[in-house]
């Protein structure tokens, strides 16, 4: 059995008492002023163009407050419309220039200054009115004798009659001057319905207005419209957004009693219902019954998405406006809460569906954006983890300056902001002098700065290494002793291991070169290595695309302590040089499965930023490429010629300490035997395209 929530007419808001309204006769708009002011209403509506704020040239009139009153605009005794009367209160903004020199001490007064004070202050005041689906702007000219007012003094008000609006509508009113000297005033009001006003005999739309019963039945919501069987009416569901235009969602023309069923997942706080009789000039009335529904608010946060836009932008997407605040915070590695930072983002409600800028000088992977509502964290996203890498063990220093340019520094820790050079028993206090030296020597990255505060991120890697040096030394000695004990054992026990991961990247030039790469990959698989190459993952490449496939493989390989092997060929060298010459532009892939071309945008930044050593190894094949052809940028990592330098190449790929030199030479001999036939065949017939499917495990 459905449980009724409330029974109301199709109008926005509920009034606890019945109001009697003043009647205005005739369709004309009018304006009147309080004593001492003179005003004039321009004929017709004007364009709503607020413009930018400009400096006042002297004393000017500006609106300071808006008030509204509901009235009836009647054309006949029983033919009236609801109308909004707006009162604009005005005050003087700015001041006259004070006299200088002798004039200040009783000298002759400036005639121009006296003339300006005897003139009139005049303002053009714009009233902007919006009530879905209509909008209007009117212009009022107001003036007051300058001699009767003082700066900051209220001078009176102007009353405009009136803006017509539908029963139950949500109206928004703005007021500003042309030119605009300050931020515009704004007011939002929900108008009452037929039940809340003494208008049943005056407004014809109330005579046969459909009635709506909103009820809940489990996970469903029923909209029951109680109308006569032959009455035709329009029904529209829309999202009423404060920020941005109204977004229609569902519309139907219906006849007779109807029951519309909504799933609870369709509910949002800004979901509104509008209904109107299908008659000429009928009044459209609306309700928004889910504003306070907890399920609607939960759905809104589930649908909200926080995005970080390089280089320093962010955006919150949601169907409705959100009563939320956004802040910057610092996320230390190892878990724990994200600590709020200065500078705070604007404290006003978050603007949804609009790109915003973060007030940062530089970005850092530990910086995150939090979105909270009613002091409850709803969303959090850290800055571009995919492009900047994982969280760093950096210390964040907060610098504070006073007006005399004296500064103090503290380090942000889980317990709070610890002053440097203090006697606290925290890591920042113990390393206070070293951190101060790092800051003075330019080793810290400045993230943000203003006149009184600044944020710095200081690397802590070297201090972590120093602290654990003795521990690591003891561990190494222990491992060395164990290794010697194993050498003395008669029968070596080979532990089952998964082997180190290796990702092979190459430029797919022809089938002969692919056979050569396949032979190398197959030979390496016979060693304790886990080899990934695009030749064996064609199905995944086709589904994901070369760039996504490489990004996933590279991240997995490096996270597991593996190594990326760059196989240089003439084509690969050409692609690298084109990329370096064109700057950050990514060369177009050479084929549907060419992961090498797609990977350059991720590989080259590692070399340019010094992150490649220990993670990358280079190689080329004897007779196909000379060592001088490898770009200088890639020589920051070991580069080997194959098969002539196979022992060194395999030693770099193996885990540290494994295997013994004799075993390494034997493995190099086996790999060379597997590699040489494919290399000889390629050198004898370099122009033969061959069969593109040869040498692959998975031709899909």
TrEMBL record:
GO terms for MF: interleukin-17 receptor activity
Source taxon at top rank: Eukaryota
Region (Disordered): 679-700
Signal sequence, start to end: 1-20
Pfam families associated with the record: IL17_R_N, SEFIR
GO-annotated biological processes: inflammatory response
Membrane topology label: Single-pass type I membrane protein
Main localization category: membrane
Transmembrane segments: 468-488
Cellular component, GO, one term: plasma membrane
Domain SEFIR as annotated: residue spans: 499-651
Subcellular location: Cell membrane
Record key words, sorted: Cell membrane, Disulfide bond, Glycoprotein, Inflammatory response, Membrane, Receptor, Signal, Transmembrane, Transmembrane helix
Quaternary structure note: Homodimer; disulfide-linked. Heterodimer with IL17RA. Heterodimerization with IL17RA is independent of the cytoplasmic tail. Associates with non-glycosylated IL17RA constitutively. Binding of IL17A and IL17F induces association with glycosylated IL17RA. Forms complexes with 2:1 binding stoichiometry: two receptor chains for one interleukin molecule. IL17A homodimer preferentially drives the formation of IL17RA-IL17RC heterodimeric receptor complex, whereas IL17F homodimer forms predominantly complexes with IL17RC homodimer.
Protein name: Interleukin-17 receptor C
Taxon lineage: Eukaryota, Metazoa, Chordata, Craniata, Vertebrata
């Amino acid at each position: 059995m459905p449980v009724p929530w409330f029974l109301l007419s199709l109008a926005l808001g509920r009034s606890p008492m019945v109001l009697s309204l003043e009647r205005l006769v005739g369709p004309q708009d009018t304006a009147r002023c309080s004593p001492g002011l003179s005003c004039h209403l321009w004929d017709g509506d004007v364009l709503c163009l607020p413009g930018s704020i400009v400096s006042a040239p002297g004393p000017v009139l500006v609106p300071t407050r808006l008030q509204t009153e509901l009235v009836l605009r009647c054309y006949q005794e029983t033919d009236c419309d609801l109308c909004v009367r707006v009162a604009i209160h005005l005050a003087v903004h700015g001041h006259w220039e004070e006299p200088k020199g002798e004039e200040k001490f009783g000298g002759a007064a400036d005639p121009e200054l006296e003339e300006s004070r005897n003139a009139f202050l005049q303002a053009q005041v714009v009233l902007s009115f919006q009530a879905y689906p209509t909008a209007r702007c009117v212009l009022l000219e107001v003036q007051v004798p300058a001699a009767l007012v003082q700066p900051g003094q209220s001078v009176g008000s102007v009353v405009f009659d009136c803006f017509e609006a539908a029963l139950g509508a949500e109206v928004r009113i703005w007021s500003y001057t042309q030119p605009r000297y300050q931020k515009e005033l704004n007011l939002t009001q929900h108008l009452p319905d037929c039940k809340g006003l003494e208008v049943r005999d005056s407004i014809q739309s109330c005579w046969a207005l459909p009635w709506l019963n909103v009820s809940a039945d489990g996970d469903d919501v029923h909209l029951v419209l109680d109308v006569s069987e032959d009455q035709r009416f329009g029904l529209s569901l829309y999202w009423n957004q404060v920020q941005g235009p109204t977004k229609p969602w569902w519309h139907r023309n219906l006849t007779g009693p109807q029951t519309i069923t909504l799933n609870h997942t369709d509910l949002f706080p800004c979901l509104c219902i509008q209904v109107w009789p299908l008659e000429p000039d009928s009044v459209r009335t609306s309700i928004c019954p889910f504003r306070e529904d907890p399920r609607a608010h939960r759905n809104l946060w589930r649908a909200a998405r926080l995005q970080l836009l390089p280089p320093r932008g962010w955006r919150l997407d949601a169907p409705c406006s959100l009563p939320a605040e956004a802040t910057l915070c610092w996320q230390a590695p190892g878990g724990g809460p994200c600590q709020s930072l200065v500078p705070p983002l604007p404290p006003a409600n978050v603007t949804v569906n609009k790109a915003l800028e973060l007030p940062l000088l530089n970005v850092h992977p530990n910086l995150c954006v939090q979105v909270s509502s009613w002091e409850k964290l709803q969303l959090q996203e850290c800055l571009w983890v995919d492009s900047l890498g994982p969280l760093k063990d950096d210390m964040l220093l907060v610098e504070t300056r006073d007006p005399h340019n004296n500064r103090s520094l503290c380090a942000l820790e889980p317990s709070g902001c610890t002053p440097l050079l203090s006697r606290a028993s925290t890591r920042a206090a113990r390393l206070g002098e070293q951190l101060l030296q790092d800051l003075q020597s330019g080793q810290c990255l400045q993230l943000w700065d203003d006149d009184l505060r600044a944020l710095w991120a200081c690397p802590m890697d070297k201090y972590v290494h120093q602290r654990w040096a003795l521990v690591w030394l003891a561990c190494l000695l222990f491992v060395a002793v164990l290794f010697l004990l194993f050498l003395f054992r008669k029968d070596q026990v080979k532990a089952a291991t998964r082997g180190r991961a290796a990702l092979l990247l190459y430029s797919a030039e022809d089938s002969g070169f692919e056979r050569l790469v396949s032979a190398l990959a197959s030979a390496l698989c016979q060693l304790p290595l886990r080899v990934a190459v695009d030749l064996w993952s064609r199905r995944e490449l086709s589904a994901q695309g070369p760039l996504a496939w490489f990004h996933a493989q590279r991240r997995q390989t490096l996270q597991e302590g593996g190594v990326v092997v760059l196989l240089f060929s003439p084509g690969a060298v050409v692609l690298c040089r084109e990329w370096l010459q064109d700057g950050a532009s990514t060369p177009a892939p050479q084929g549907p499965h060419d992961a090498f071309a797609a990977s350059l945008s991720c590989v080259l930044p590692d070399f340019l930023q010094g992150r490649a050593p220990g993670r990358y190894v280079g190689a080329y094949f004897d007779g196909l490429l000379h060592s001088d052809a490898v770009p200088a940028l890639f020589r920051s990592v070991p580069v080997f010629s194959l098969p002539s330098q196979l022992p060194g190449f395999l030693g770099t790929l193996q885990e540290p300490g494994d295997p013994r030199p004799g075993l390494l030479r034997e493995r190099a001999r086996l790999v060379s035997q597997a590699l040489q036939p494919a290399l000889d065949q390629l050198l004898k017939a370099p122009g033969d395209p061959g069969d593109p499917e040869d040498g692959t495990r998975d031709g899909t």
